[in-house]
Amino acid sequence: MTLLPEGQSPLPPYCDEHFSIDFAEQLVLLDGKRLVLRKKEFGLLALLVMNAGQAVPRQSLLNQVWGYSGDVRTRTLDVHVRRLRSKLGSHADRYIETIFGIGYRFQPRAAASPLVPIPAEAPPGYLGLPA
Length: 131
Description:
Blueprint: E1 14-15, E2 19-22, E3 27-30, E4 33-34, H1 39-50, E5 56-57, H2 58-66, H3 76-88, H4 92-95, E6 96-99, E7 103-106
Antiparallel strand pairs: 1-2, 2-3, 3-4, 5-7, 6-7
């Protein structure tokens, strides 16, 4: 999934009991307080949320957020994930999961909107899609 230019998001905002993100407004709230994110931090977080419940490979994140192609060895992604986790505070481990050897995954909370009927046998992705 690619990031869209500012203000051109077809996705509805993601919202749960602690965290919300409005893709069109590039606004992130944690417990009702605005998180100040740098452009790359927002891009990384938005891409993870757009693919909620699915492991996003490191190379895909590096390519789509930073424009790196090929087999690039860099700690940029890890540094940005560490900064995001720091800003998410006590909620960090609930939302951003490291998938060793693959990449990262955003774990949506059960009460996330938009509310879509979800089969009990499969944990949902952000839009009610199977993870």
